[in-house]
Amino acid sequence: MPVQNLRDFLNENGVKYVTISHSPAFTAQEIAALTHIKGQDMAKTVMVKLDDEMAMAVLPASYHVDLEMLEAATGARHAAIATEQEFKGRFPQCEAGAMPPFGNLYGMDVYVDSELTEDEEIAFNAGSHTELVRLAYDDFARLVRPHVVSFHAVPVAV
Hints:
The chain is of the alpha/beta class.
Protein backbone atom coordinates (compact mmCIF):
# COMPACT_ATOMS: atom_id res chain seq x y z
CA MET A 1 0.00 0.00 0.00
CA PRO A 2 1.77 3.15 -1.08
CA VAL A 3 1.65 6.23 1.08
CA GLN A 4 -1.25 7.77 -0.87
CA ASN A 5 -3.44 4.68 -0.42
CA LEU A 6 -2.71 4.72 3.31
CA ARG A 7 -3.57 8.43 3.47
CA ASP A 8 -6.82 7.78 1.61
CA PHE A 9 -7.75 5.00 4.04
CA LEU A 10 -6.99 7.20 7.06
CA ASN A 11 -8.89 10.15 5.57
CA GLU A 12 -11.93 7.99 4.77
CA ASN A 13 -11.99 6.93 8.41
CA GLY A 14 -11.64 10.43 9.85
CA VAL A 15 -8.19 9.89 11.35
CA LYS A 16 -5.92 12.82 12.19
CA TYR A 17 -2.33 12.00 11.30
CA VAL A 18 1.01 13.48 10.30
CA THR A 19 3.30 12.19 7.57
CA ILE A 20 7.03 12.62 8.03
CA SER A 21 9.46 12.43 5.13
CA HIS A 22 13.05 11.46 5.85
CA SER A 23 16.17 10.34 4.04
CA PRO A 24 16.29 6.61 3.29
CA ALA A 25 16.54 4.49 6.43
CA PHE A 26 16.00 0.76 6.75
CA THR A 27 15.64 -0.14 10.41
CA ALA A 28 13.06 1.10 12.87
CA GLN A 29 15.81 2.23 15.25
CA GLU A 30 17.49 4.21 12.44
CA ILE A 31 14.20 5.88 11.50
CA ALA A 32 13.41 6.71 15.14
CA ALA A 33 16.79 8.40 15.55
CA LEU A 34 16.58 10.20 12.21
CA THR A 35 13.09 11.58 12.86
CA HIS A 36 13.65 12.29 16.59
CA ILE A 37 10.90 9.89 17.63
CA LYS A 38 11.47 7.84 20.77
CA GLY A 39 12.10 4.16 20.01
CA GLN A 40 9.17 3.37 22.30
CA ASP A 41 6.83 5.41 20.06
CA MET A 42 8.14 4.04 16.76
CA ALA A 43 6.22 0.90 15.87
CA LYS A 44 7.99 -1.71 13.78
CA THR A 45 6.21 -4.40 11.83
CA VAL A 46 7.82 -7.82 11.94
CA MET A 47 6.38 -10.45 9.63
CA VAL A 48 5.93 -13.77 11.39
CA LYS A 49 4.58 -17.19 10.57
CA LEU A 50 2.27 -18.68 13.18
CA ASP A 51 1.68 -22.34 12.33
CA ASP A 52 2.43 -21.48 8.69
CA GLU A 53 -0.04 -18.55 8.63
CA MET A 54 1.48 -15.14 7.87
CA ALA A 55 0.80 -12.45 10.49
CA MET A 56 2.14 -9.08 11.59
CA ALA A 57 3.82 -8.62 14.96
CA VAL A 58 3.92 -4.92 15.85
CA LEU A 59 6.07 -3.68 18.70
CA PRO A 60 8.19 -0.70 19.77
CA ALA A 61 11.34 -0.24 17.67
CA SER A 62 13.51 -0.68 20.73
CA TYR A 63 12.30 -4.25 21.36
CA HIS A 64 12.77 -7.65 19.72
CA VAL A 65 10.11 -10.32 19.14
CA ASP A 66 10.37 -13.17 21.62
CA LEU A 67 9.06 -16.09 19.55
CA GLU A 68 8.39 -18.31 22.57
CA MET A 69 6.29 -15.58 24.18
CA LEU A 70 4.48 -15.03 20.86
CA GLU A 71 3.69 -18.75 20.61
CA ALA A 72 2.33 -18.79 24.16
CA ALA A 73 0.32 -15.58 23.68
CA THR A 74 -1.25 -16.65 20.38
CA GLY A 75 -1.68 -20.36 21.05
CA ALA A 76 0.48 -21.19 18.03
CA ARG A 77 2.43 -24.43 18.07
CA HIS A 78 5.26 -22.80 16.12
CA ALA A 79 6.24 -19.16 15.55
CA ALA A 80 9.02 -18.02 13.25
CA ILE A 81 10.23 -14.79 11.69
CA ALA A 82 9.15 -14.85 8.03
CA THR A 83 11.73 -14.37 5.31
CA GLU A 84 11.34 -11.58 2.78
CA GLN A 85 10.78 -14.23 0.08
CA GLU A 86 7.82 -15.58 2.04
CA PHE A 87 5.97 -12.27 2.35
CA LYS A 88 7.09 -9.79 -0.30
CA GLY A 89 4.41 -10.89 -2.79
CA ARG A 90 1.69 -9.91 -0.32
CA PHE A 91 2.75 -6.24 -0.41
CA PRO A 92 3.42 -5.47 -4.08
CA GLN A 93 2.98 -1.72 -3.61
CA CYS A 94 5.30 -1.49 -0.59
CA GLU A 95 9.06 -1.49 -0.36
CA ALA A 96 10.30 -4.66 1.32
CA GLY A 97 10.41 -4.19 5.07
CA ALA A 98 8.38 -0.96 5.03
CA MET A 99 4.85 -2.36 5.29
CA PRO A 100 2.47 -0.35 7.44
CA PRO A 101 1.01 -2.37 10.35
CA PHE A 102 -2.44 -2.60 8.76
CA GLY A 103 -2.63 -6.36 8.29
CA ASN A 104 -6.41 -6.11 8.15
CA LEU A 105 -6.00 -4.51 4.70
CA TYR A 106 -3.89 -7.46 3.57
CA GLY A 107 -6.04 -10.26 5.01
CA MET A 108 -3.82 -11.14 7.96
CA ASP A 109 -3.93 -10.96 11.73
CA VAL A 110 -2.07 -8.22 13.56
CA TYR A 111 -0.58 -8.83 17.00
CA VAL A 112 0.42 -5.72 18.92
CA ASP A 113 2.73 -5.96 21.88
CA SER A 114 1.06 -4.61 25.02
CA GLU A 115 3.95 -2.14 25.53
CA LEU A 116 2.84 -0.23 22.42
CA THR A 117 -0.69 0.28 23.76
CA GLU A 118 0.68 2.53 26.50
CA ASP A 119 1.69 5.16 23.92
CA GLU A 120 -0.63 8.03 23.13
CA GLU A 121 0.73 8.16 19.58
CA ILE A 122 2.63 5.74 17.38
CA ALA A 123 4.63 6.21 14.19
CA PHE A 124 5.32 3.57 11.55
CA ASN A 125 6.57 3.04 8.01
CA ALA A 126 4.02 4.04 5.40
CA GLY A 127 5.05 1.64 2.66
CA SER A 128 8.42 3.19 1.86
CA HIS A 129 11.81 3.69 3.47
CA THR A 130 11.45 7.48 3.23
CA GLU A 131 8.08 8.25 4.81
CA LEU A 132 6.28 7.40 8.00
CA VAL A 133 2.91 8.18 9.52
CA ARG A 134 2.24 9.27 13.11
CA LEU A 135 -1.25 8.98 14.59
CA ALA A 136 -3.07 8.32 17.85
CA TYR A 137 -2.73 4.72 19.04
CA ASP A 138 -6.48 4.68 19.72
CA ASP A 139 -7.19 5.42 16.04
CA PHE A 140 -4.81 2.66 14.97
CA ALA A 141 -6.51 0.20 17.34
CA ARG A 142 -9.98 1.22 16.12
CA LEU A 143 -9.07 0.66 12.46
CA VAL A 144 -6.90 -2.46 12.76
CA ARG A 145 -8.48 -4.20 15.78
CA PRO A 146 -5.23 -5.95 16.64
CA HIS A 147 -4.81 -8.78 19.10
CA VAL A 148 -3.02 -7.22 22.08
CA VAL A 149 -0.56 -9.64 23.66
CA SER A 150 2.88 -9.51 25.27
CA PHE A 151 5.72 -10.86 23.14
CA HIS A 152 8.64 -8.43 23.49
CA ALA A 153 12.15 -9.34 24.55
CA VAL A 154 14.43 -7.08 26.55
CA PRO A 155 14.81 -3.66 24.90
CA VAL A 156 17.77 -3.06 22.65
CA ALA A 157 19.77 0.17 22.54
CA VAL A 158 18.31 2.79 20.19
